[in-house]
Every structure is written in structure tokens, then in C-alpha cells.
């Protein structure tokens, strides 16, 4: 049974890559790293009920489990190559497990294929539903983007729009269904379930951004990580936060602002750029479709502060998602 499942995963995610000498099926995979490149490696675990709501479609779980990892590679300016998948599946009827695996693998492959990412191995066990994906990508030596290089005076920018995924989660928790309403709920829930890792943007930011992070826990929390790693502070203008028309149509301005500041799961990039290079970066990222919006700047201080639309400093109650908060 387990081996049939692994075969189904292998068939559905097949991806020919020259640098994979031995993929799924032996005791370990063998790969031939390109000479002279550094390897960026990341792993993320998704637990049902914590990282995705119960009832999420298997294909969406497959997509998201890879997307959150590719987003980490994007934030480093790395290009993806290989992945490992550790699946923990609940005990249930064989047909149900098979359906889950088929949907999961198809959702995973839908994102893996356009990026030529090869699934080269993994592990399959029984227990509460949980998925770990590890990814490997390439980056030229010394060119990776980190959280640590920001300078005072650098401009803070973000790709795409913020707050959509957290709004989608709230709509789901309120019982919204994607097949009802005017399409706003469907759009926001899709942003929660099928985030778009900004890989092309990450590559374009190499040698231009001074620091970069992907927004998984919320803008304030994640920009806070850039501040801590760079030994600086930041101020941002709430009026500049990029928000989708769907978010603004479904929620009032304050709720939409708070989703954009503190909601998690957007998987957009937040990065810092010296002022002289901002225009060029914005032109390039606009060409890539995601765009880049300037939202604030880095300061010689501590922490992140937010100016509201009236120019007052904002008290932000919930600064982001922390799994280990009391
Ligand atoms: P071993 O017991 O030697 O670790 P396994 O039976 O766990 O071998 O795995 C057999 C092969 O299938 C290995 O190549 C492993 O990498 C691969 N594999 C197992 N589970 C998965 C999975 N969920 N996704 C992809 N490959 C998997
Ligand atoms: Mg094993």
C-alpha cells in the first residue's frame, strides 16, 4: 500500500532534470550540484488545523506545502531545483488515502512543473495529517539575499498586495463558501490556499535589494525580523499599504489595514532598496506582474512603527502570528 502510494506520487510529479542522478525509489536520492553554485535549503511543515483549515482540498494542500517553501527560496534570491516530501497521513480507508494522494500530488505538481522542480524523495508515515517539504535551490556564491543587509535610509517595499490571505481565512471561519457571493470571497480564499511564491522577483532583487524576507507571519512581524537582523528600525505608512480591490470590497478600511499589517500567509516579499535603485526595481517587478510598492523606510532606531492615514502613530495590537505565543 505505502509503495503504491509512493508510485502514484512519483508518476504525478515526474520532472526530468539532468542533475538528478537517482530520484525516488532508492535509499537516498543522488544529485549533481552545479559547480560553483551555493545551495539554498529550506524546510516547512504544514499541520492540519494550524497551517491550513480542516476541509482544505488535497490539491490546495499540495500546492501550498510547496509554495511556502518556494517562497523561502524566493526571499533568498535562489532558483529552485529539488524537493523532499515527508507525509504523515491519518489511518483511513484505502480509497480515501488514494484520493488524497492523487489530489495532493496534482496540486504539488501544478506548482512544481512550471519551476522545473523535481521531487527526489521523502518519507510516508501514519499519524495526524501533516506535511513537511524541504527544498533546495541554487544561488551564485555570495549573492543570496538575507535579512541582514538593510541600511538606514533604505526604502521598504513589498510585492503584490497584503492582507488577502488573512481575510480569506476569516471568511472561511465565518462559513463563507467559494461558490457563493460576488467572487470576492473566492478570490481571497484562493489567495490563502494557493499563494504565489515570488521567485522571479527574488531573482531580480539579487544585487539590488539590501535585505529581503517573505511575509509568512504578517508584515509587522516579518519586517521586524529584517530590523533585528540589520540592527535597525523601520517606519511605514499605513496609507501606502497595497491592498486588493477584493479585500477593500469585502472589509472596511480599518479591518483591511489590520489584515495588511498583521495577517499572515501572504507569501509576498518585503525588501529594502537604496533610494537610488527604487525606480529601476519597481519597473522590473511591474514587468513581472507582481509589482512593488514602497511602504516606508529604514531608520537608525529599534522596531517597526506605523503612521496611520492621519499622520498619527498607530498602536498595533496584534503584530503577527506567533505559534509559541502564550
Ligand atoms: P527507506 O525505508 O529506505 O527510507 P522508504 O520506503 O521510506 O525507504 O522510501 C522508499 C523511496 O520512496 C525512497 O526513495 C524515498 O525517498 C521515497 N519516498 C517515500 N515517501 C515519499 C514521499 N511521500 N514522497 C516522495 N518520495 C517518497
Ligand atoms: Mg524512509
From TrEMBL:
Binding site for substrate: 51, 265, 321
UniProt enzyme class: transferase
Binding site for Mg(2+) 1: 44, 123
Biological pathway: Cofactor biosynthesis; thiamine diphosphate biosynthesis; thiamine diphosphate from thiamine phosphate: step 1/1
Protein residues bound to Mg(2+) 4: 27, 72
Record-listed ATP binding positions: 122-123, 147, 216
Domain PurM-like N-terminal stretches: 25-139
Binding site for Mg(2+) 2: 44, 72
Other remarks in the entry: Reaction mechanism of ThiL seems to utilize a direct, inline transfer of the gamma-phosphate of ATP to TMP rather than a phosphorylated enzyme intermediate.
PANTHER family in alphabetical order: THIAMINE-MONOPHOSPHATE KINASE
Protein name (record): Thiamine-monophosphate kinase
Organism: Dyella halodurans
Gene that specifies this protein: thiL
Amino acid at each position: 500500500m505505502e509503495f503504491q502510494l509512493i508510485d502514484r506520487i512519483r508518476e504525478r510529479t515526474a520532472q526530468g532534470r539532468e542533475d538528478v542522478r537517482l530520484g525516488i525509489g532508492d535509499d537516498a536520492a543522488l544529485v549533481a550540484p552545479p559547480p560553483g553554485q551555493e545551495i539554498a535549503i529550506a524546510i516547512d511543515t504544514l499541520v492540519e488545523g494550524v497551517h491550513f483549515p480542516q476541509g482544505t482540498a488535497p490539491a490546495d494542500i499540495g500546492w501550498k506545502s510547496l509554495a511556502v517553501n518556494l517562497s523561502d527560496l524566493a526571499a533568498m534570491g535562489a532558483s529552485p531545483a529539488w524537493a523532499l516530501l515527508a507525509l504523515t497521513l491519518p489511518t483511513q480507508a484505502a480509497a480515501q488515502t488514494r484520493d488524497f494522494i492523487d489530489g495532493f500530488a496534482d496540486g504539488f505538481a501544478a506548482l512544481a512543473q512550471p519551476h522545473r522542480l523535481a521531487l527526489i524523495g521523502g518519507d510516508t508515515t501514519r499519524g495526524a495529517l501533516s506535511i513537511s517539504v524541504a527544498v533546495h535551490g541554487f544561488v551564485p556564491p555570495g549573492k543570496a539575499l538575507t535579512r541582514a543587509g538593510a541600511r538606514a535610509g533604505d526604502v521598504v517595499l513589498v510585492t503584490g498586495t497584503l492582507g488577502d490571505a488573512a481575510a480569506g481565512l476569516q471568511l472561511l471561519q465565518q462559513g463563507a463558501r467559494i461558490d457563493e457571493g460576488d467572487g470576492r470571497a473566492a478570490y481571497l480564499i484562493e489567495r490563502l490556499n494557493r499563494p504565489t511564491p515570488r521567485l522571479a522577483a527574488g531573482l531580480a532583487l539579487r544585487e539590488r535589494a539590501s535585505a529581503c524576507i517573505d511575509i509568512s507571519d504578517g508584515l509587522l512581524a516579518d519586517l521586524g525580523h529584517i530590523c533585528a537582523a540589520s540592527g535597525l528600525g523601520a517606519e511605514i505608512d499605513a496609507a501606502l499599504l497595497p491592498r486588493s480591490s477584493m479585500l477593500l470590497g469585502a472589509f472596511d478600511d480599518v479591518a483591511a489595514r489590520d489584515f495588511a499589517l498583521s495577517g499572515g500567509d501572504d507569501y509576498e516579499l518585503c525588501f529594502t532598496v537604496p533610494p537610488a535603485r527604487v525606480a529601476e526595481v519597481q519597473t522590473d517587478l511591474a514587468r513581472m506582474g507582481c509589482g512593488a510598492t514602497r511602504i516606508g523606510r529604514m531608520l537608525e532606531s529599534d522596531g517597526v512603527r506605523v503612521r496611520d492615514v492621519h499622520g498619527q502613530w498607530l498602536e498595533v495590537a496584534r503584530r503577527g502570528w506567533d505559534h509559541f505565543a502564550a
